[in-house]
Fold this sequence. Notes:
The complex is a heterodimer of chains A (117) and B (199).
Chain A: H1 9-12, H2 14-17, E1 33-36, H3 38-43, H4 49-57, E2 62-63, H5 64-70, H6 75-87, E3 91-94, H7 104-115
Chain B: E1 21-29, H1 35-42, E2 48-59, E3 68-83, E4 88-94, H2 102-109, E5 114-119, H3 128-136, E6 141-146, H4 156-163, E7 171-174, H5 179-198
Parallel strand pairs in B: 1-4, 1-5, 5-6, 6-7
Antiparallel strand pairs in B: 2-3, 3-4
Helix pairs in contact in B: 1-5
Amino acid sequence: MSLGDAGDGLRVRPYAITGGRTRAATEVPIEAIVYRTPKGEKAVSSMSLERRQILSILASPQSAAEISARLRLPLGVARVVLGDLVDEGFVALNTRSASGRPDLRLLERVLDGLQAL
Amino acid sequence: MASKPSDMVVSPDEATSGGPMPVKIVVAGGFAVGKTTFIGSISEIEPLTTEAALTKVSEGVDDTSKVATKTSTTVAMDFGRITLGDDLILYLFGTPGQDRFWFMWDELVRGAIGAVVLIDTRRLEECFPAVDYFEENQIPFVVGMNCFDGQATHSPDDVREALAVSPDTPVLLIDARERVSTRDTLLELVQHALVRATA
């Protein structure tokens, strides 16, 4: 597969951003809320395009899904770039660590929150 | 909102950085059953779409072109967001419609509170794969009968029987366009998940 191929290249080329990798060392769940670290805030202007775009919209912390949608980056690509940014200390994640279901306390907070809507 | 001066935090169910903790609910169901409408009725943002790109290289079948051709498909997933306080954000993720994208479901349900399965009683069979999936993976779910014309053609009990779901699975009449209906459906799911978690 050639990254320079025109055709449906739009669908393929984004992985050029990740050097062809489809996974990063750090897994970024789709709903993980991403925010800039002080290091990330300082580094915005010196970053490559995609990274700069990500760090710029992170003026408001938001989920990996929102970042992907707003920047029109395929989710897989966004997650690799975000994973790299985490590893390099430019962003950090708020996410539930476990794959298990939320605990009772969290469920009760969700219940209260929904009832208050 | 300022970003948080904190190191990477992967916390359990409490945010320790002061930033909001995300939780999610999956919205499943067949094609055009109202998933995006449901999400949009309560989301504080216009439902957004994220795409997962699938690319495969296949040999050209045409003899004159011995060239490999690329085909790519994208899986579109709609989602919305509900802020439930300073420190808690609920995301609603619609499942990709087509069954061949099951691999995305594993990712979507990981750590989720549970799922809402939307059904159209005229095309009930379309929700069978979703119901099977959630049962097999022990994901708490509720069934929402979307009443398109404001009228229920079947009773919840009929539907429960037709789906052969357990008697304690909530089956609700809903209107996916109505915020209150959507909120009550989510409440029902969270309550169901609570009961399941304490059982």
